[in-house]
Amino acid sequence: GAGVSQSPSNKVTEKGKDVELRCDPISGHTALYWYRQSLGQGLEFLIYFQGNSAPDKSGLPSDRFSAERTGGSVSTLTIQRTQQEDSAVYLCASSSRTGGSYEQYFGPGTRLTVT
Amino acid sequence: GENVEQHPSTLSVQEGDSAVIKCTYSDSASNYFPWYKQELGKRPQLIIDIRSNVGEKKDQRIAVTLNKTAKHFSLHITETQPEDSAVYFCATYFGNEKLTFGTGTRLTIIP
To answer: Which burial class, exposed, middle or buried, applies to A87 when counting CB atoms under 10 A from its CB (0-12, 13-18, 19+)?
Structure first.
């Protein structure tokens, strides 16, 4: 079946502009995660959605970052007033979290460049 | 707080030799320990995982060992091949179901 998809694959924006990144998780997966990966670095947790529960926003680096998940499926990550340090690959992952399954399936990522 | 330490950060191994990457974690309640492989320019993918009720799990040339008392787990790759070159991340779930990743190990297989 279809895996996790993200759009756009690449985004170049000017400093100060807002951007929206989209994630389509695997159908039926109740858990959805956003991570940020700077060049050559590890995976920085941003936010976690699980079903209808309140999201875990503990990883968001500033109030310029926000995320929504509509209808328990598609998610958008919004970065307002982008800064150069926001340049990174933003990865989305989903997980079924049922039947003892913990595996996270990652999307291809969105490469964000802030000029 | 939640913490996963991973060593080494880089590792070069002659083709055919073994590679070992180690991670330590802080929360004794952690019960699931996956390893992800990320090839250059690609997304991370799960290669093996282990739960806290077993001490070792093997899948062909890859194995993971877990020592819950010492709170560390390791990835072992035997008979390494060029396609094993990648960045490897360990991870563990903490009580709030958030998967915390280690900082990664860049493995290079020397032909």
So the answer is: middle
Please check whether residue B45 touches A, CB under 8 A.
yes
Mutate to test the interface with B, among A32, A46, A104, A111 (most CBs of B within 10 A): A104
Q: Which residues of B4-34 are buried (b: 16+ CB within 10 A; e: fewer)?
A: bebeeeebebeeeeebbbbbbbebeebbbbb
Both structure tokens of A103? 């595996």
Q: CB distance B43–A109 less than 8 Å?
A: yes
The DSSP secondary-structure symbol of B9 reads: S
The model's pLDDT over B30-86, given as tens digits with 9 standing for 90+, comes to 888 999 999 999 999 999 999 888 899 999 999 999 999 999 999 999 999 999 999
Contact residues, chain A, for B45 at CB < 8 Å: 106
